[in-house]
Amino acid sequence: MHTLPLKIWHEFQSVVETLSDETPSRQVLEVILFWIRSNRKHLTGEPFTVYGFDSLAKIDEREIPVEYSSFKVSDLINFKSIVLKRQARDVDSIARFLRDTIEELATVEVDEQCPRCESEGMRAFIGKYNGLLAYQCNVCGYSNYSDGSRVENGGLEFASERQLRELGLI
Questions:
Q1: Domains in the chain, start-ordered, CATH in brackets?
Q2: Quick one: DSSP state of residue 62?
Q3: Exposure winner among 30, 35, 40, 42, fewest CB in 10 A?
Q4: Is this structure's pTM higher than 0.85?
């Protein structure tokens, strides 16, 4: 896919433009997910499949611990600015940016050091196939389980608020 239909991109931009700087993070997530779900037929090819839009559309946002994410007012201002500047033809940038924004809204940052690049700060996920706590580096993207073993490609899903509470992370 080389471009999004102008109408659906402009509709999204119009909704994003109405968000105030005080808009709750949960509402930002709901706006993005509503747009993805409403336009699934336009988001079926690359790059949307590469960035996991099929999985993102299935998220139950009521279970996501958005209020504990690191998404702040400055991130919302940046989100609005980037969405409003993008053109419908920038599909790869749009897909990557929306996926990254959803991840930021849906995950909790933890005080862990990346074993690969040694950066501080990783995001908590759950292993899709084994239910184990996993961490993903904010800088290099490396993922590992809390026991130190490497996460298989595509093996992460967002942790629910309940799971994070049970693990003592919130």
A1: 6-106 (no CATH), 109-166 (2.20.25)
A2: G
A3: 40
A4: yes
